[in-house]
Design goal:
98 residues, alpha+beta, three-stranded antiparallel β-sheet, 23% helix, elongated
C-alpha cells in the first residue's frame, strides 16, 4: 500500500486526502487525519502547519464564500483527529472507510 512519508504535506485536515492507483489499478485511499472533517465541512490546520497559512488559504480560495456551512477551527485537537485515520486498498472500485 502507498503511504505518504509526511502527512504534514497538507495544510488542512480536510484536504489531507489522496488516492493512489497502483500498477494493478487498485485504488489506495490515504487520509492520515481521517475523513471526518472533510464530510463535516470543517477546516482545521494539521499539527505541523502554521495557522496563518491556513487562514490565508481560506481567504484566497474563498472557501467560506463557496460553502457557507464551512467551519474553521483554529486549534487542532489531536485526540479527535488521530482516532479517525484511514488507509485502505480497494481492488477495482472505490470505498470510504470511517
Amino acid at each position: 500500500m502507498y503511504r505518504p512519508t509526511m502527512p504534514s504535506y497538507w495544510p488542512e485536515t480536510a484536504t489531507s486526502i489522496a488516492i493512489h492507483i497502483d500498477p494493478s489499478n487498485n485504488l489506495d485511499l490515504i487520509a492520515p487525519y481521517g475523513l471526518n472533517d472533510f464530510f463535516n465541512l470543517i477546516i482545521r490546520p494539521t499539527p505541523e502547519f502554521n495557522t496563518e497559512i491556513v487562514e490565508k488559504r481560506l481567504v484566497d480560495k474563498r472557501w467560506q464564500t463557496e460553502w457557507e456551512k464551512l467551519e474553521y477551527i483554529k486549534n487542532i485537537s489531536m485526540v479527535s483527529v488521530l482516532n479517525f485515520k484511514v488507509g485502505c486498498r480497494v481492488p477495482g472500485y472505490f470505498l470510504f472507510l470511517l
